[in-house]
Amino acid sequence: MVSELRSPGARGHCVVIGGGLAGLSAACALVDQGVQVTLLEKRPFLGGRAYSFTDAETGQEVDNGQHVYLGCCTAYTGFLQQLGVFDRTTLQRRLRIPVVDRKGKVGLFSAAPFLPAPLHLIPSFLKFPHLGLRDKVRAGLAMLSIHRMDKEKHREALEGQTFRDWLKQHGQSDRSCDVLWNLITLPILNDSVSDVSAYMGIMAFQDGLLHGRNSANIGYSRVGLTELISDAAKDYITQHGGQVLLGNAATKLIITHSNVTGVDTGLEVLPADTVVSAVPWDVLPELLSPELAADRYFAPANKLEWSPIVGIHVWYDRPVMEEDFLAALDSPLQWVFNKSRIQGLPGPGQYLCVSMSGAWEHAPMAKEALRAMVLPELEQVFPEAATATVERFIVVKQLAATFRCTPGAQAHRLPQQTPVGNLVLAGDWTQTGWPATMESAVRSGRLAATEVVRALDAALSEPASS
Ligand SMILES: Cc1cc2nc3c(=O)[nH]c(=O)nc-3n(C[C@H](O)[C@H](O)[C@H](O)COP(=O)(O)OP(=O)(O)OC[C@H]3O[C@@H](n4cnc5c(N)ncnc54)[C@H](O)[C@@H]3O)c2cc1C
Predict the structure, then answer these.
(1) Which of 48, 103, 331, 445 could join 26 via S-S bond, C-beta 3.0 to 4.6 A?
(2) What is the mean pLDDT of residues 76-88?
(3) Is residue 85 part of a domain?
């Protein structure tokens, strides 16, 4: 099938549905390979779940939630480089995480210079003040097992149990689970060790922390997330011959004889040689017929679940925090980011963002209750906050932030290929092997692009009547 939209020399036409990182990375990879792309995004801006908005009162860009990437997120950083915006982010040269408890005791989780992974973590771990020697020895042995483990060999067993169960079997105390293992698990997997599968917990430590000296280096944008991505991605696609239709939702896929022939937007039908669906799993069924949505291929995805993140944004009239960011132990704050420093905002005030992952307890709380809980906690960690004035306090709740990596959930993620020959899936929730992250979204987009090119080339090599 050859669409009327194909321009001379183009490999074929692909409609990409969804302008999150998955759809954008697919679209950018496709225009690079001579595919004519139309990208449909229902909102008036690109970036999907990684977006920012301008706060009317302060005039500052506020992210929908603090987004962090790690040194091991090579697809995401490659995508930022492709768009020419990587230098608008900061990536640590060496891992350094200040960890503060409620009594003000500060520990440092950091990479030692010159030592290879995973030995690079040992010096700071030995000095880490928040765990006793016995817990440290046991944690070290568990990390060693994780580092050496071929997790694919034990996939079924690991996917069938929680990470906490696995940690307990490997001698970890409740304190160690809360202080050490959740420090990494909560922000990466957006759920606690009690909820995630051992398979994904181990993946987070293997790939995120232990894999290489720089794999856990922390990176973040120095500008609002929409400012980072939206215009740069739109320009990239249009300058390479594609088109981006903002404020345009796909309402239905037109499927005949197990092939998508077009995408209905409610206003028109866009013809397509191939389609990439880069929408979340709970939107996909709306685009399919009820029969297809219930098909045994697509139906498992309906079993995926969302996990919430709560972001709390506080503007003080003066500086209260010195570090760029820190993790707070035994505190609902979890992680605090100094947005004034990160974004280079002028004084005299200071803007902080508190990021609460796996926020099951805090997501239902009213703004005033969150304020009554968070401000004293901030004063506990930053004593200067006690004498500072809070000039603005806003809460951003993202109830559908990331898909859950609970035991068994990996089986509900779908691969890029579908039974509808020229319909390809992308999205952080597809089978990338990664948890719900920007890295997973970009990887999925690239996998989808490879699949589209394969399908288009196969169609081009068929006889003209096909
Ligand atoms: C608060 C928060 C904090 C996070 N923190 C981190 C972090 O620190 N590090 C990290 O790596 N990840 C983080 N994530 C996860 C990360 O944002 C996601 O994994 C990633 O952005 C998902 O991208 P995606 O393209 O797969 O999906 P989405 O971003 O959901 O994109 C889907 C797009 O499809 C569009 N769409 C939906 N229906 C239609 C339709 N019918 N027609 C057209 N368009 C449609 C949507 O508007 C959206 O733009 C966080 C997420 C949240 C919410």
Answers:
(1) 445
(2) 98
(3) no
State the distance from the centre of ligand 1 to the C-alpha of 213, rounded, in angstroms: 29
Distance from Cα 436 to the centre of ligand 1, integer Å: 9
* The ligand 1 atom nearest the CA atom of 43: 47
Is the distance from the beta carbon of residue 18 to the nearest atom of ligand 1 less than 6 Å? yes
Q: Which domain CATH number covers 162?
A: 1.10.405.10
pLDDT higher than threshold 60 for residue 111: yes
Q: How many domains does the chain have?
A: 3
Please check whether residues 298 and 428 belong to one and the same domain: yes
Phi/psi of residue 45, each to 5°?
-145, 165
311 belongs to a structural domain: yes
Q: Is the CB of 436 under 6 A from ligand 1?
A: yes
> Could you tell me if residue 3 is inside a domain?
no
Do 281 and 428 have their domain in common?
yes
- What is the model's pLDDT at position 381? 94
The rounded mean pLDDT for the chain is 94
Q: Which atom of ligand 1 is nearest to the CA of 24?
A: 25
Which tens digits make up the pLDDT trace of 85-104? Answer: 999 999 999 999 999 998 88
Q: Which helix (H) or strand (E) holds 129?
A: none
Beta carbon of 68 within 6 Å of any ligand 1 atom: yes
- pLDDT given for residue 257 in this prediction: 85
Ligand 1 site, residue 186, Cβ cutoff 6 A: no
Examine residue 82 and state whether it is found in any structural domain, yes or no: no
Tokens of 315: 């503007």
155-187 pLDDT, tens per residue?
Answer: 999 999 999 999 999 999 999 999 899 999 999
Closest to 143 (Cα-Cα) out of 181, 194, 169: 181
From 16, 37, 13, 10, select the one nearest 272 (Cα to Cα). 13
Can you give the CATH number for the domain in which 356 is found? 3.90.660.10
Whether 111 and 203 share a structural domain: yes
63 lines ligand 1 (CB under 6 A): no
pLDDT surpassing 70 at residue 401 = yes
Choose one of 155, 181, 214: the last residue of a domain.
214
Locate the ligand 1 atom nearest the alpha carbon of residue 22 and give its number: 25
CA of 23 to the centre of ligand 1 (A): 10
Q: Which of 214, 242, 273 corresponds to the end of one domain?
A: 214
Task: Give the number of the atom of ligand 1 that is nearest the alpha carbon of residue 46.
Answer: 49
**Mean pLDDT to the nearest integer, 113-140:** 92
Q: Look up the domain containing 456 and give its range.
A: 13-48+224-304+410-460
Q: DSSP class of residue 162?
A: B
